[in-house]
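Lab notebook, bench 4. The sequencing result for the construct came back, and we need a structural model before the next group meeting so we can plan mutations. Quick request posted to the team channel:

Model the 3D structure of this chain.
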Amino acid sequence: MSFQTTETIQRLWETFLRDQLASLPPEQRQQFEQQFEQRFGELLKGAANGDGRDGFLDLIGFGDQGAPEFDKITYPYIQPDFDDSVVPSQLHAAAELYYIYQHERMKIFQVVEVLQRLFRLGKMRIQRGPGARGLYLLQKWTPLRYGTSDRMMAYRRAFNYGTAQAPAGAVVNRNFHRQLMGFMAALGQYFRDLLIGEVIRGGQLIEQRPFGSVATVQRIGLDLRYALDRSTYGNIFALAMETGHYLKTVLQLLDAPDIKKAFDANTKWDVVEIVSNRHLGGVAEPSQRAKMAESGRRILQFVADNDFKTAVDPILFQSVVRPMGAHAEAWVAAYRMTPEGRGFPGVTPALRSVLGVPQAVGV
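Done. Here's the predicted structure in token form:
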């Protein structure tokens, strides 16, 4: 189909759309708006026959008909696919790696190393229980192929966390924390605006129109997903899977009855706290880190699995993203209680900073 014909179809479609929507009752228009938009895209895509090499050859005069007039040039439809060009397995691995990182900050791996040393030196009163056997197996088989330096390098590449030297030429996700914080703030702001809108309108379903900005959440989510995809090639997937299984094993080990009894502890987290205070210079915000690990991983999983389509129905988006609002607020609340998060200015100022909106200056 020629470009002129396609252009005519576009103009006629807009006229048709206005006439059809005008004839519908206001309460029925919304359910057809999205269908009309999808049908228009399908119509343009189906009408295009200049999407291959032949269309370009016709344009430069190498086709069967020679060089056509401009109004007869075929219409080239280009399918937008940039936002879909990510590897989901890498993003899921990044979510697991973030969960592992927060447990690294809680000193879980260091605590296990201390327990192994105490067990080897006979400074811990355990002998034949499940904890003793677990420590023996860890020491004998050394299940981790990726050690501390490998984990630190992975954190640096994927999240720009830590001080490890990144390999020469490797992609480092330098804006991860800023984007993650911005996404959490955008979700928090979205649901706060939505709540205000519901209060003003007197209910959730009146006019079916949320006040929150869907575009802001989508934009930051797409940037976060793209940056994570670029920086998690190589061994990130294997490292996250291996270390994840190891972390699960050591958490079960810390919950062994004989280990808890040796430290007069009631839970595995008591063991972590006692060992950290005695041998590692103090405990490292286990409560806050645990919540950041849980909510941060869930948010990153959501970012990995959501395609953030531009023409999404706002009501559908609201329903899909609603469970993430609680995780975002929980992450922000926990982050503000950590040493690096105590300077967090709040949801709205943080979102303004990420979006590049100038801050108001007091007179």
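The first helix runs from residue 3 to 23.
Will bring this to the meeting.
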